[in-house]
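Title: Prediction job returns without error message
Component: structure pipeline
Severity: low
Priority: P3
Assignee: unassigned

Description:
Job completed but the reporter wants confirmation the result is attached to the right record. Sequence as submitted:
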Amino acid sequence: MKDEVDVLLIDNTHREVMLGVSQLVGYPPIVTFTAFNHPMLINTLMGNPRLPALIPLEEAPYDCEMTFSERVINFVAHLYYHLIEVFFFDPAMDTLLREFISPGSPSLRELEQNISIALVNTHPTTHCEQATTASIVEVGFLHVKPPKSLPKVSEVFFRVEPTGESR
């Protein structure tokens, strides 16, 4: 099976499990995507700088123009998440990888080095502008389906004349 996988496409939400599986299929290049905004963990994965004074966390109720106090709170929240990630989450995931995938499994951080591209569900028109490395690709509106036609009842309210004017 190791020769049959050319690329591994994984959802960033559950990347830890699939990163463990990647070693079983020969460490193919990995493309990760997220249906959420631009999670701060993507920045870490792809070597993009975290900018907690400029970019609010995706869970924060702040917009792109934060006040000084909002920036301080956002920075503390970033720091808190980072400490939880480094000291609790990553060691727990490493233990699970070695227990259920392979006893000699590389660490989660080492496996993350195989991620080549991250597709993030952001767009400058709807999210804060953020400088990104070339390995982070903004592909906004991943969750949007093609529009359906309006019901016939709407023709009574919105009628377009042959001249292109609406009534």
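Comment from assignee: result matches the submitted record. The mean pLDDT is 81.
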